[in-house]
User: Which sequence fits this backbone?
């Protein structure tokens, strides 16, 4: 029988301090050349081991080989000039210096496929691999070529599909697309955002997920959250169409957020990665707090579809805090699983 409430993480985990500056987003690498390549691979092994030690069921690379969840993928594409930078408002929220699309975009070569093979060699557990979603990619760029967000999103979707098919062939069990932009641009999500995501998963036989969150625990995001009022109903705008989509799993922010849990009813039937760990605070959840979030979610998500998870990536946290949070996630899931089975 399949394990009930299998635990996983939304994405990134902290990197070792010998590889990159800790507790920093877009942290520069500390190594170069072949030392950097080896260092990333060593960090991937360490990250896997930390997840296994914490008892996580669906493991990942902890995004150890990438500097940032969007830009590292884009760096491997033709048509994007990283020297030509523009400051744009990303997620309609904060200014960031981003590269410019100067010509037709295409993938030079596989981006993460070798890393995924390395992870596959290290474990027999199910593995999940994260890619940026098309809409979040275009939202992290200045487009001076297509001059249409939608057109560029379709191009990225084709490229993502090539990468996803190779990740699947490398033995990845779940391919996840990170789409924090889905929480901001509702009209576009419904017009073409979900459609481009479905293009990105076309022909895949492995499971697919979309991760929609309120962002890392960085100041621009926590300030934004303060403006959202007491009830966060952003998910409500995109759930009906997502429920109808071909995406298998939806990964969400739940614990400590102001998302009314009953919104999960709108995606009934989908598998749901329920965020039961807050990544925007250094305080460690107790197993009982995790269990409470999961019990609440169980009112709207069938037990066999519930995957306890973190709200978002934990790259900006310290390693000790991130590991403690993973253990709390596991312990909380254990409590609720025992209740379900007793
Ligand atoms: Zn996230």
Assistant:
């Amino acid at each position: 029988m399949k394990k009930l409430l299998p635990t996983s993480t939304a994405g990134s985990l902290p990197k070792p301090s010998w590889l990159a500056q800790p507790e920093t987003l877009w942290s520069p690498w500390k190594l170069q050349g072949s030392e950097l390549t080896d260092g990333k691979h060593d960090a991937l092994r360490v990250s896997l081991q930390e997840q296994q030690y914490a008892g996580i069921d669906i493991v990942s690379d902890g995004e150890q080989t990438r500097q940032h969840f969007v830009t590292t993928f884009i760096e491997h594409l033709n048509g994007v000039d990283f020297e030509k930078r523009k400051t744009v408002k990303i997620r309609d929220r904060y200014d960031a210096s981003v590269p410019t699309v100067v010509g037709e975009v295409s993938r030079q070569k596989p981006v993460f496929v070798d890393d995924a093979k390395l992870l596959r060699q290290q474990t027999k557990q199910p593995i999940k691999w994260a890619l940026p979603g098309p809409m979040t990619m275009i939202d992290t760029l200045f487009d001076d070529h297509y001059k249409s967000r939608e057109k560029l999103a379709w191009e990225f979707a084709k490229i993502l599909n090539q990468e996803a098919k190779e990740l699947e062939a490398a033995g990845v069990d779940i391919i996840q697309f990170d789409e924090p932009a889905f929480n901001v641009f509702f009209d576009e999500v419904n017009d073409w955002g979900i459609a481009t995501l479905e293009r990105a998963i076309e022909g895949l036989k492995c499971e697919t997920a979309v991760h929609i969150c309120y962002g890392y625990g960085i100041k621009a995001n926590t300030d934004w959250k303060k403006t959202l009022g007491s009830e966060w109903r952003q998910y409500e705008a995109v759930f009906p169409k997502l429920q109808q989509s071909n995406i298998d799993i939806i990964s969400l922010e739940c614990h400590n957020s102001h998302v009314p849990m009953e919104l999960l009813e709108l995606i009934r039937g989908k598998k749901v990665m329920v965020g039961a760990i807050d990544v925007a605070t250094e305080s460690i959840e107790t197993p009982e707090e995790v269990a409470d979030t999961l019990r609440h979610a169980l009112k709207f998500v069938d037990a066999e579809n519930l995957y306890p998870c973190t709200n978002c990536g934990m790259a900006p946290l310290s390693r000790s805090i991130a590991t403690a949070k993973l253990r709390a996630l596991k312990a909380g899931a254990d409590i609720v699983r025992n209740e379900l089975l007793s």
Remarks:
- The mean pLDDT is 95.
